[in-house]
Design brief:
With 407 residues, the protein is mainly alpha-helical. It has a domain of 159 residues: AhpD-like. Helices cover 60% and strands 0% of the residues. The protein has 20 helices and no strands. Helix 6 runs parallel beside helix 9, helix 11 runs antiparallel to helix 20 and helix 15 runs antiparallel to helix 16. The longest helix has 24 residues. The chain is globular and about 55 Å long.
Length: 407
């Protein structure tokens, strides 16, 4: 066992005493405030600038040629071009969600704009306002999207769609009432597509907020200035003890067999996790640190179990899961590990990495590594919300959350 791991194990014996003596105090430290608890602050200039065309290589030009007919090559795309492999990971699922999903164009854009509002991502709001108008979302509708599901004028089903976005954003889960209301009208494919639309645009918002992607020149739509930022949903319900979406029979992990119920989603979203786990330059130590912290924040027990266990093998990489649950204030972390844990907390709570945390990471990381940190947390926020919503269940032999107070 590495010396650092031995030290952390000893430290955790002390933390266990703290849990026994003062659970309320530790709970306040272990899980950050819920997303949307305070009005977010956003960057007005890029941290990672869009890659100028003068710097494009043949690889960049080939990627633009591949995706240019289907997506606009604006500031977001050009920023992702700084890491070509990240473009290849993100684009197939994004194209499916925005163009090919089973949702009507209007329902799709309601969910996208509400998620952009919740995340306060000015780029996505400005980018999708014209698309939404073509889909029948009027300027008055956009104003009511910002006001939320309780605004006057929504029909009950569209109000439920907005409520779905609010619950996923705030609670990383979907209430029984909202699931049942959608299930009364949507088939399985529509249900999965609605949830994954919110989750994908939450991922994009976290990336774009933290990289500082600014609205494109000529994009005029802005958030309504007269609508205060507010997110109001019921408290998160207890975790599901049975799946809402049954995994298909056969070998493999339950998460893969659950997504396999919707083959197009399973096929197109594969690149996101593949980038994080196989392409990203982050070491397994820091990758699993980020994945487990965002899984804990979202209270995604299946994600936690697999990345402690057979998928992530956290302890093999010098990590003590209980310390990750305790968070960046727990004793035993070095400053760089604290920066990773704090980044995961900030992205979860605020949808953006703070200047101080960004600076701490950027002292050692280059642009590719910084973007990989963001993608790791954002992708596993998407995964956590999906697992919670679909009710993917751990196996009886899985190691579940440590004995720390739950939110």
């Amino acid at each position: 066992m590495p010396a650092g791991s031995r030290y952390r194990s000893l430290v955790w014996l002390v933390c266990g005493v703290l849990v026994w003596l003062a659970p309320a105090e530790l709970a306040a430290q272990a899980i950050p405030d819920l997303p949307g608890s305070t009005p977010p602050v956003r960057l007005t200039a890029p941290r990672i600038p869009p890659l100028p065309e003068a710097q494009w290589t043949d690889e960049h030009r080939a990627i633009v040629a591949t995706y240019g007919p289907e997506v606009r090559i604006g500031n977001a795309f050009k920023t992702l071009l700084n890491v070509p492999a990240l473009v290849e990971a993100v684009m197939p699922f994004l194209i499916y969600i925005t163009s090919d999903s089973t949702l009507s164009a209007r329902h799709r854009e309601l969910l996208i704009l509400r998620t952009a509002w919740l995340s306060q991502n000015a780029y996505l709001w400005a980018d999708h306002a014209p698309v939404a108008r073509t889909a029948g979302v009027t300027p008055a509708d956009r104003h009511r999207i910002a006001e939320g599901p309780d605004a006057t004028g929504w029909d009950p089903f569209e109000a439920t769609l907005l409520r779905l976005a609010d619950e996923l954003f705030r609670n990383s889960a979907v209430s029984d009432a909202t699931w049942s209301a959608l299930d009364a009208r949507y088939d399985l494919y529509h249900m999965v597509d609605a949830i994954m639309t919110v989750n994908e645009f939450t991922l994009l918002s976290m990336l774009f907020n933290s990289m500082g992607v600014q609205p494109d020149d000529g994009a005029t739509a802005r958030f309504p200035a007269d609508v205060p930022y507010r997110v109001a949903v019921p408290a998160r319900e207890r975790p599901l003890d049975a799946p809402r979406v049954d995994p298909i029979e056969g070998p493999g992990l339950r998460v893969g067999r659950t997504f396999a119920r919707h083959p197009r989603v399973a096929e197109t979203r594969r690149g996101n996790s593949n980038y994080v786990n196989r392409v990203s330059p982050l070491t397994p130590h820091y990758r699993e640190l980020l994945i487990l912290r965002i899984g804990w924040n979202c209270q995604s027990v299946y994600e936690w179990a697999k990345h402690v266990g057979s998928v992530g093998r956290a302890r093999d990489h010098g990590l003590e899961p209980a310390l990750i649950a305790a968070g960046p204030d727990a004793p035993g972390w070095d400053a760089f590990e604290i920066a990773h844990l704090t980044a995961a907390d900030e992205i979860y709570r605020d949808g953006i990495v703070s200047d101080a945390t960004w600076t701490a990471l950027a002292r050692r990381y280059d642009t590719r590594e910084m973007m990989s940190v963001l993608m790791t947390v954002a992708n596993y926020r998407l995964v956590s919300m999906s697992l919670n919503a679909f009710g993917v269940q751990p196996q009886p032999t899985d190691e579940l959350f440590p004995t720390l107070p739950r939110p």
